[in-house]
Design a protein that fits this description.
This protein is an alpha+beta fold. It is about 35% helix and about 20% strand. About 45% of the residues are buried.
């Protein structure tokens, strides 16, 4: 049975209206678990939270340089993009430079997740495209990797393809786990997705934040080159007004969400890795969880905390913008700051 526990209580007036259940894990620079809610070894799929790791084999082989892909464009390899025009322009540029075709992508055509972009397309009666899928950038990176490793480009998505084997190796390396402790499923976009202990996702993000702790030398060098780009161009990794883009504006943080309620965050100054997973798969209270953890750790950028508060205030509002309740965090880091 799941070992999840209550993380956030949602009150309407003084009655508990909803209980948001899940897991939390925080590790230090030595990969030691400092704090957890729920079993830290419980298997959780990375989903799109693995994308900054999956991009590293592409950068490790200088494929961005080989095809003249700019630093800003390369961030799309880690993105769950919202389909804004600048995202699509980047994908079109990469595919043109690399000689790839949109129809090679395995996912079905769709419309952008960013509603204004979707609405504009519908007004013009324009069709869906594969480029509008939020995972198209990750797929582009896998296609380049597949070609470089000698595989058939169109087979980049197959679990036994050279690209997916190399991506799995990178995910296991940064998560500090192995074949026996990594489970594989198929993600929503059609490529393999990796399940590890929730603590191993926290370890993965600790390694993304504390690059010097990455054990594999080539992956460590690639991370040093690539990860600062995410902070320089945070709008690429998600889009306008989205949590991940706003979080990565803070140079102290490296973070990425995943479908079904999973989130990873690394803190550079504090040398910590954080992961959490909502059992319901919802993402509505992510900002509350991050704000609770950051406030207790202390020393965070006030603008980051203000941003989180704007995305999800402590108050519960109804459809008429009236306060009708409040949220309460049950995440207590032993009432001591983690340093």
């Amino acid at each position: 049975m799941p070992t999840h526990e209550p993380l956030i209580l949602e009150y309407r007036n003084e009655v508990i209206d909803n209980v948001h259940m899940g897991y939390v894990c925080i590790v230090d620079e030595n990969s030691k678990v400092l704090f957890h809610i729920g079993d830290p070894s419980e298997y959780v799929y990375y989903r799109s939270a693995s994308k900054p790791i999956q991009a590293l084999p592409v950068i490790m082989r200088d494929l961005d340089k080989k095809y003249g892909i700019t630093e800003e464009e390369s961030v799309i390899f880690s993105a769950s993009h919202s389909g804004e025009p600048f995202h699509i322009a980047i994908l079109e540029s990469i595919f043109a430079k690399a000689g790839l075709k949109e129809e090679m992508l395995i996912m079905k055509p769709t419309y952008p997740g960013y509603f204004p972009a979707k609405l504009e397309l519908l007004k013009k009666d324009l069709p869906p495209r594969k480029f509008y899928h939020n995972c198209a950038g990750k797929h582009a990176g896998a296609m380049l990797l597949q070609r470089e490793l000698g595989g058939k480009t169109e087979d980049y998505w197959r679990p036994d393809s050279p690209a997916q084997k190399e991506i799995k190796r990178a995910v296991m390396a940064l998560s500090e786990t192995n074949e026996d402790n990594t489970k594989v499923g198929i993600d929503g976009c059609g490529v393999p997705v990796f399940a590890v202990g929730i603590k191993n996702i926290a370890i993965g993000y600790k390694n993304l934040a504390c690059i010097d702790t990455i054990r594999d030398e080539k992956l460590r060098e690639a991370a040093g080159v690539y990860l600062p780009r995410i902070n320089r161009y945070p709008h690429i990794i998600r889009g306008t007004g989205y949590l991940c883009s706003l979080m990565n504006r803070d140079p102290n943080l490296i973070s990425k969400d995943g479908a079904a309620g999973v989130y990873g965050c690394g803190m550079r100054k504090e040398r910590l890795g954080i992961s959490f997973k909502m059992s319901s798969g919802e993402d509505t209270v992510w900002p509350l969880i991050l704000k609770s953890i950051f406030t207790q750790i202390g020393g965070q950028d006030p603008q980051t905390l203000e941003m989180l508060d704007k995305l999800r205030p402590d108050s519960v509002f109804n459809d008429n913008d009236l306060v009708v309740g409040h949220y309460e965090s049950l995440i207590c880091l032993d009432r001591k700051p983690i340093r």
